[in-house]
Specification:
With about 350 residues, the chain is of the alpha+beta class. It has 15 helices and 8 strands. Strands 1-2-3 form a 3-stranded antiparallel sheet. A 3-stranded antiparallel sheet has the order 6-7-8. A two-stranded antiparallel sheet has the order 4-5. A hairpin with a 2-residue loop joins strand 2 and strand 3.
């Protein structure tokens, strides 16, 4: 049979956003693939050159609505590095708490979508149900449901509301029991296991060479996490472990995210115990010096990085974003070759695509 190229996208249930996956097939077998992004490009990096530093915070929220806290935190970290600002300790603990709440909410959205991709509609309903609890917690802190505008250069916008610790710990106790239910649903499904185990193999060497980061890299058994290897906020003050899995397939990437949600619960509990009293924000300069700075964080999808050039004014001369998914999607051809067209939703679903941060 002759080989042919087919398009899966730009509008396709598998894409989880507006992008196109060109797949070269020989019958049902994939022999090559080419990801095509750029359909969602908003000119974010150019847009922020005409905004004052504080005005960029709500824009950074929108890089990925599934991980808004993570991106606005990364932006504030970068500008704090540029301006040489020291953040109060209480604010750093609050940041860690809301970032891990955001990580759980992001992974739950991924788990729900992954279940739908593979026919587990119950998994979708259950995961989205619990995600609402974490969105409620983030909303109680910030006043917004998904784009929070909560991080500030020099700290956070406001302190935690009354009874937040109580409500958060109750949610974690409830959620950990639900995680056990998820595992019964997903791991107890023969169809789910058949469609994820030994599918989408990504060797550790290939993952490293292609710049893959986050759960996709750790699903290939590589023990790298920015929170450990280049610590920020107060992660190095907390006792937690990097979650990895050695199997290098779709199931391994699922397993890593499940373990990370449990680890996030542990991090949040310890952060509450160690969080001191004190201010949550410091006053910062309006103008940044003429120099460059960069910061990086462990976003729910991998390594997010921002590089800024200050020119002495109240606006950045240049702000460059390193999106984890933009890099990870380059590994898609290797993950797809040799598998069937029917395996594409499982393989692409295991990557956790977010096109807002990818195209910008």
């Amino acid at each position: 049979m002759a080989e042919m190229w087919i398009n899966m996208g730009p509008q396709h249930p598998m894409t989880h956003g507006l992008w196109n996956l060109r797949v070269k097939v020989d019958g049902e077998t994939i022999v090559d693939a080419e990801p095509v992004v750029g359909y969602l490009h908003r000119g974010w990096e150019k847009l922020v050159e005409n905004r004052m530093y504080p005005q960029i915070i709500p824009l950074s929220d929108r890089l990925c609505y599934g991980a808004s806290m993570s991106w606005s935190h990364l932006y504030c970290l970068t500008i704090e590095e540029l301006m040489d600002v020291e953040v109060p300790e209480r604010a750093e603990y609050i940041r860690v708490i809301v970032l891990e709440l955001q990580r759980i909410a992001s992974h739950l959205m991924w788990l729900a979508a992954f279940g739908t991709d593979l026919g587990l509609l119950t998994g979708f309903v259950y995961a989205m149900r619990e995600r609402e609890l974490f969105l409620d917690l983030l909303q109680s802190v910030s006043g917004a449901r998904m784009t929070y505008n909560y991080m500030r250069i020099g700290g956070v916008r406001n302190d935690l509301p009354p009874n937040f610790e109580r409500d958060c710990l109750r949610t974690l106790d409830y959620f950990e029991k639900k995680l056990d239910e998820y595992e019964q649903i997903y791991d107890g499904s023969d169809i789910f296991l058949m469609r994820t185990q030994d599918i989408g193999y990504l060797k550790p060497a290939d993952a490293i060479n292609l710049g893959v980061t986050g759960p996709t890299l750790r699903g290939s058994g590589v023990k790298i996490d920015i929170r450990k290897h280049d610590p920020y906020s107060v992660y190095e003050e907390l006792d937690w472990e990097i979650c990895t899995h050695p199997d290098c397939d779709c199931y391994a990437r699922y397993r890593v995210r499940m373990d990370e949600m449990r680890m996030s619960c542990q991090i949040i509990r310890e952060a509450f115990k160690k969080m001191p009293d004190g201010p949550v924000r410091v006053k910062v300069p309006r103008h940044a010096p003429k120099r460059t700075a960069f910061a990086r964080v462990e976003d729910p999808r991998g390594e997010g990085l921002m590089y800024v050039i200050g020119d002495g004014t109240d606006k950045p001369f240049r702000l460059k974003v390193r999106s984890p998914i933009f890099v990870t999607v380059s590994a898609v051809p290797i993950m797809l070759r040799g598998y069937k067209v029917a395996d594409v939703p499982a393989i692409m679903g295991s990557v956790d695509m977010c096109l807002g941060e990818t195209d910008r």
